[in-house]
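1st attempt posting a full record on here, be nice pls
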Amino acid sequence: MTDFEPEPIADAIEEFIPEPPPQVVIGVRFREASRMYHYSAEPHTLFPGDYVVVETARGEEMARVVTVPDDADEPPRRAARGVKPILRQATREDRDRAVEGRERGEQIVEQMRRIAMRDNLALYPIAVQLNLAGDEGSGHFHAEEHVDFRDVVAEIEQEHDLKLHMQHAGPRDRAKLVDGYDICGLRLCCASWMTSFPKVGVRTAKDQGLSLNPDSISGVCGRLLCCLTFEHEVYREMRGTLPRMGKRVSTPAGMGKVIKQNILQQYVTISLDDHSQRVDVPVAEIGLAVRTEDAPNQALVEAEEQREREQRSALRRAAAPANPPQEQQREPAEEQQREPAEEQRRESESPEPRRRRRRRRAVNTDSPPHSAAEQPRSEAPGGPTPPPRRRRARNPRRGPSQPSE
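the predicted structure (as tokens):
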């Protein structure tokens, strides 16, 4: 007996079975500029631009490879267990079936539009996408309000022998599916390369100094142009170097107020304080001191002031009432003579202030003083002297004095 023990048969078999190659993540798209989905495949088997067949909720569909791992930049990322694998690379038959399904989908859309018009439904079918087998697909429609489209779907499914899943599409999604050209003359960005819609607001158009007319800043979808966001950050950065609207600044032509901005050319329009002339000043000259030799043409300034004076005098003549012929022929000397007479008349008519005069009592200095009881009633040389009035003291505690008996 020897100490040698044979290895188990299962362990020996595992040594000869090669390990499966690692799976890497591959990114694919079903339509141009659509959402990207991830599948798994063996490394170095697929390249960007290849067409593959993958499994979806609607069955087998053909997609295009857009991203593959690059070993030169970083090691390939292993695919997780839940990622579905790519079934196969698309063949000529798969491509032909995909083209036939696209043409069949266009025919179904036209038929759905005729049915919607016949039934007077506020429904606009946009597109229908079928799988490679042609027995199932997804339809996209647009409607402003809730619409019952079950009769339309039932008629299409019965006639074409397929199962159709309807999905509502907004204004931007509708433009993306229909495709077309915008006012710039180029193909729609959302249909050619944009994979998601940015958030566009009116503030974006204001920062770029654009007109807020809806016809000029809206796209074919009826919403604000997506391209307003492409250069918004550049506009904000360049606008920060310009003075604000309404700010008073110093320029070589004089002090003035900013009334307009040109962000791309980097200059502002100034309304000068000295005269009504408006000048365009580059941003590099803002804040420079006013110099005499750089002042505007004096002849131009004087001509502008003379024109303003003539306009004001013409306006005053037009607003003044027409004088009668007799007053127009009156001489200046007559006017000067009439003015003093008018002043004298006003002075004579004005009432004088009344003065209060006190009547003084006449005192006779020749006669000796007498008591109040023995006051004589004789006439003085200067005339009769009135008796002095006797004033009685009134006691507030007592009533009026009673006459003595």
